[in-house]
Amino acid sequence: MFSSFAVRHTVGRKQAKGEVAMLDVLIKGGSVVDGTGRPAFSADLGISGGVIVEVGKVTTPAARTIDADGAMVTPGFIDIHTHYDGQVSWDAEMLPSANHGVTTAIMGNCGVGFAPARSSDRETLIALMEGVEDIPGTALHEGITWEWETMGEYINAIDRTPRTMDIGVQVPHNPLRLYVMGERAVRREAATPDDIAAMQALLVEGLEAGALGFTTADTVGHRDAHGNPTYARQVAASELYALGEAMGRAGKGVIQIFNDFYRDNAGDFATIAELARRSGRPLSFTYEQDDAWPEGFHEYVTGEMDALNATGVPIRAQVAPRAIGGIHSLQGTINPFMTRPSYMAIMHLPHVERVAIMRDPAFKARLMTEDDRPISDFVMSVSPRVEEWGADPIRMAQRTFCLDPEPDYEQPLDRSLYGQSQATGRSVPDLLYDQLLTQDGTGQVFVPIMNWGGGNYDFVHDTLNNPWAILGLSDGGAHVGYICDGSFPTYLLSHWTRDRTRGPRIAIERAVQLQTTAPAEHLGLHDRGRIAPGYRADINVIDHAALAIGRPTLLNDLPAGGTRFVQSARGYLATMVAGQVVTDRDRLTGAKPGKVVRGAQRRAA
Fold first, then answer.
1. Dihedrals φ, ψ of 478, to 5°?
2. How far apart are CA 39 and CA 592, in angstroms?
3. Tens digits of per-residue pLDDT, 554-570?
4. Domains of the chain, with CATH numbers?
């Protein structure tokens, strides 16, 4: 559909008196998907001063012309759910988001972050982020500059570094609680009225300084590096309501919440709804399909969203375009054999040496007979003690897939390890072992955790088409050795609008809307997320036919030698931030026009 692309520079000349001013950039002849959801249309874009000034047949001369004939032109993507809170201290490039069309990244999600923070709390907050978001503590210790204590000081500190994209900050619940309550927060004590008043004041102070919102989480899966629950776990609903009411009085900010409400849909979701009502502020919640959902739960949640929005309560679901799951590999954080004695004896060795040892048939035979300890359902399912621990090996094997160089995240059952085992007669552990040793020991196995009920994407398709949905949950910058979902924007546009064969696709216009106008309107960023005069020139020029993601690869580029998964993209012919080209044919240009977005924004006059 979209194929050719060329860039040319127009030589500037002296402007004659009375002539129309020269544009900075002219994007010529693209198929514009403007972010609103309306059908694509052919148009030129004129850009001046970092703002779109003309859309249509543009004849004004320009200093630079981008010939987008055959390409798709969209607003830059807004990633509403990232965890770059520590990475912003040392990284100006903002990978992996920068190469997936993201021009604004919002961090501070799930109630974790690094401000406000007393100097005595730094170790505690690093342990929290390391445990919750799988970011190496050594990298955080070495990389974070700690030039701040308050939220305002944090915003000022990170805004001193130019970046490839704009970033937005939110006030996270756990640091807020720790700052006010100290060790009592770590012990998860109830907040006193004085504690709540202090948290309210600091929250409003952070919003006045430019934070975009407040975030919290109540989930059993979030623990610090020592295995302790987060400080905001199971706080009283009255504490949440008080913080929301403070935001309502201030008239600022959005609320983001991650909650295991599917375990008690009549209770926990009611708390979320009441928080949205009492605050009067836009609220978004994490919405992933869990195997434990009761019958009719999806219909209940979507019905509640419809009802709340109909009465003027702005509530949205943050949804993902594929299964949320983990990558098992010999290079990353986990693999299925990591707790067996033979592997534990070599896990400290360099990767090349470990792979050489594991290729020895005698080593493999010995490891396959060994006991391990249960650290997850997946490890349990390939353990010799699987029956004793009560794991369901067939269920896990049916949702375990090999990731090839062209990764497929929606594979049919017969391509799962269970399907391969049935077809070949080999055991699942045997297949797993050999898969990890493929491609010089960089083989990967993907295990869906959420959004894979029934072994398909029926739920995902439904949520992507929900009118109250926002694309979220990429967790850019987090889970660096286990999850690599910063590629969500590219996956949504390639898989769901072009490649999907196991069910219906979605319209390109909807895929763009989910990550442009929808998050912009929710966040109050009315200066971006749409292609129209007066909006920021945050723009993607995309070869849709060539758009693709690569297999996750491990980089050793974190501070202190830490490693992280990143995922490449193909097909981004140009990405612009405030009118400057930051990527050209999938490569960073070195331009860094990005700044901190301080609070809600208005469209340029």
1. -115, 170
2. 32
3. 888 889 888 888 999 99
4. 77-322+453-526 (3.20.20.140), 326-448 (no CATH)
